[in-house]
């Protein structure tokens, strides 16, 4: 009985740690503390190194109004996966601006998954395996059935809202 209880406790603790959200680790590649794996928006935007750029950039970004009107017409039940590095300059610049676009569209936060990676662009437990992440941030847009519609990698070709509109227009 004692063995069974200790085994159950070990299994439970393994499951809990595997699902830890906003997990902080020390990244050897950049020799600094970072977030890793699944994160909440609040976890990312309050992470000290990320927050120092997030707040002023989010406030300063002004999505193109005409593009936003078109985006709002096309958004249905898509999901978005954001792969970022809390250590990454491009993530620090583009993620706040992307959130500003999502907020302006009134995109449902429950339809956004955020995954932080280490300096080797890896996460734990295989949570980004098969996503072919070469640069961060990577914003991946999926339809309601989980089919990838397109992605914005590292930085937009035009603007974040313009690239997002081009992805959503392809589905129509």
From TrEMBL:
Pfam families: Thioredoxin_9. Keywords: Signal. The keyword Signal applies. Residues 1-18 form the signal peptide. It comes from the Bacteria. InterPro entries: Thioredoxin-like_sf. This is Thioredoxin family protein. It comes from Pedobacter jamesrossensis.
